[in-house]
Each structure stands twice: as structure tokens, then as C-alpha cells.
């Protein structure tokens, strides 16, 4: 959008803005570093299309990726810097007159810092409501549920660069996927103890390739199904906050 388009939408009554918080980090030997940012772009655009009156802002392309720093190409913010970036983005949007700022994390490391920031701000930033989505287990669970309906257990769909994420990138940008390099990684369940181990000790504590799951069965059709499932989850969450 141009600034005039934003001005016109606001003049017509739009007061809610949405942006995603992605990352630039390893996604195994077969997916691009910008996987989470592409996912954020896609999900935010789809959610905004389903919620009239919501204006779409650009995705923040960096997140908390400390647990992936053992892999070259990963660029991380520490939690305080990430929260400061999100806070400043929200303050900027509030200064233009937005009354509600919705934030959609598309990278696992961003969920907890967003929850902490919401608690610290009591859900108000620059006079606007600050509404981040923060339930990582429901987000991952939506992918696992969709995978199981197609016959794939969570150990295959995975939580990072597995069948689910690989399918999503095949649906969005197949030219960026190198399936010849796809290989199975960590095959356990991504439950809360596993998530703690990942964030405390790094991805290599679980997988030498950076993959959690098995990307080899991935298809673009499955990717569209995953995107639909996540879009539904996020739309239902954000809808009550749209003004």
C-alpha cells in the first residue's frame, strides 16, 4: 500500500492494523532462511482479507532465533531487542490513529516474548490496544491436527522444516524448495518439555540438520490445507478485536 491508500482506508473508518513477526533463520538444508517471514506474509494477508476493516502492515523479518544460531545464515534479535522493535512498530502505528494493533507471530521463538510484552504493557501501546497471538501449542497443534487427518503423525509433519512447513513453502514458493536435499530430522513429539529443551539448548540438541520432522512427503496441496487451517485459527482469535 501507499501512504495515500492507508490514509483513504483510515478516512473510511479503518482503525485496526495487522502485521506478522517472522524470522530469518535456518530451515534445514532444503528450505530458505526466510521461510517464517514468507509464512507471516501469507497468513497476515489471508487473515486481513477475511476481516473487513483491517489494514495489513509489512512483516517484521527478524525474530528471536537464538536457538538456531548454530546454523550459518541465521540472524537473531535477543528478546529485549525484539520486544523493543515490536513496541516501536506498535507506537508508530498508534501515532497514526490506529486504535488496535494485531500481531501475528509466524516463528516459534516470537510467541513467548510477545506474551511477555503484552503483560508488560497490559495490552496498551501508545493509546492503542495491543493484541498479539501467543499460543504456540495451539498453533503447532493446528498443523498436527491437519497432518493427522491426512495420515501423518506429528513426528512427520514436524514443528520446524518438516512435512508441514515444507508443504507450505511448496504452496507459496516452490522455486525456493530443494527437495533433493530434504531429509528426515528429529522424530519425536514437539511437546512442552521438548520446546523447553529446544529454546534452552538450541536446535542442534535435537537435530544436526535443523529439521524437526520429515519433509520428504511434502506437497503443495497439503501446504494449502495447512495455510487454511492456520488462517482459520488466527481469524477466529483476532475477529473479536477488530474495530
UniProtKB/TrEMBL annotation:
Sequence similarity: Belongs to the creatininase superfamily.
Keyword Cell inner membrane (UniProt): no
This protein's record includes keyword Protein biosynthesis: no
Cofactor(s) for this UniProt protein: Zn(2+)
Coiled-coil portions: none
Annotated GO biological process: riboflavin biosynthetic process
UniProt entry keywords in alphabetical sequence: Hydrolase, Metal-binding, Zinc
Pfam families: Creatininase (PF02633)
Protein name per UniProt: Creatininase family protein
GO molecular function: hydrolase activity, acting on carbon-nitrogen (but not peptide) bonds, in linear amides; metal ion binding
Cross-referenced InterPro entries: Creatininase-like_sf, Creatininase/forma_Hydrolase
